[in-house]
Amino acid sequence: MTQALWAHLAKDLRIEWRSREAVNSMLFFALLVVVLFSLAFDPRGAFSREIAGGVLCVATMFASVSALNQAWAREIRHQVLDAQRMAPAPGADMFLAKVLANFLFVSIVQLLLAPVFLVFYNLQIQGNPWQLALVLPLGTWALVANGTFFAALSIRSRNRELLLPLILFPIFMPALLAMVLATGSILTGDSDPSLWIKMLLGYDIIFTTVSLLLFEVVLHAE
Amino acid sequence: MSAKLPEADHPTLCARVDEVSKLFGSFAALRQVSVELEAGRCYVVLGENGAGKSTLLRVLAGLLRPSFGTVRVFGSFEPQEARARIGYMSHAPMLYDELTARENLRYFAGLYPGHACLSPSDALRQVGLDPELDRTLGQYSQGMRQRTSLARVLLPVPELLLLDEPFSNMDIESARQMVALLAGFRHGSRTIVLTTHQRELAAPIADCVLTLRAGRVASFEPGGPSL
Q1: Which residue of chain A is at minimal alpha-carbon distance from B24?
Q2: Is there a contact between B36 and B5 (Cβ–Cβ < 8 Å)?
Q3: pTM, full prediction
């Protein structure tokens, strides 16, 4: 870990520890989605296992958008971003630190959401539960890597809160599908999720690499 | 209009702005501005709102690329190539409200890997702040924020200081203290370019005064207490 990457990450974690803005807003929003869906569909038995993967992924996705926007809004408040642009540290360090911090915040929300989810949807996992420990981080990484990049891209736009989901969701769609289908396969135990896990891994590698390569251009765009 | 120093006491050029224009859409914030800035001097940029003062500083800092013309600093470098040698202070503090002054400076020092930076405590002492103060920046007065912002600029020991409205939102006493601080930094080879509306405040440290009007250089003349 480079000095600049660590400086960015430590700063993001310290600010979130003091404000708890991102985790609190995501948690309440995700809880609301999970509870509302459970009331709307009355999930029991096999049906709950079929829809649970989709509900969890969609709840995470919508909840993350507010946190991703906040992550960059903090940088443009008081023109801090200009001071960061003046520093010689590579932009890729800043991007990677933001992705790591956002990944941690979303993962915390998922961990807090998990017991509530199991209770409300009365879930009993039929497949290999350890595969979930692979699918959820891979899907979350895909979401936050793309989301962090596109949030930075729309940072100077007046309608950035609206713009981010409009750009992010279509591009995230293949990863979302893989995440939902893999989670569904593990919960129902009907099929092997390894194909979807490989697809998520490939998606993560490609989009993280492209974002890292292009971030310097986005950072210094006028 | 081209602007050169009337006297060449310090022959080393710190920055050269050559026929620079900056367009934002169809609006020209700078129009064919040419200025030569010599090392070790303090330049005060005056002008009404919208005259192009902040744009000129941002172009010198490398935060904006000129639409036409060229900017070179420290010889033949583009400002983007010499970012570590330039300090830029905006009228916004460019710091995080949620962190203390020392935490802010420690963070920014981390963004200069391989550079010999001042320690956060030393930078804060240089601007007259107590490094042990354990309050977040959100609880600071405007004057203290401006000083912390100046400490951030001084952290990597820059050779060219670009200060955009450093006295804005400061009471007269704090502004005078800031001028006294800047007068101390002027000695040596450090070049200062500052914009202000309060010309009488900057007069004691001004070696040269550049006046912009509607994006053009209206005048470029020696400064001093009689400014």
Answers
A1: A222
A2: yes
A3: 0.88
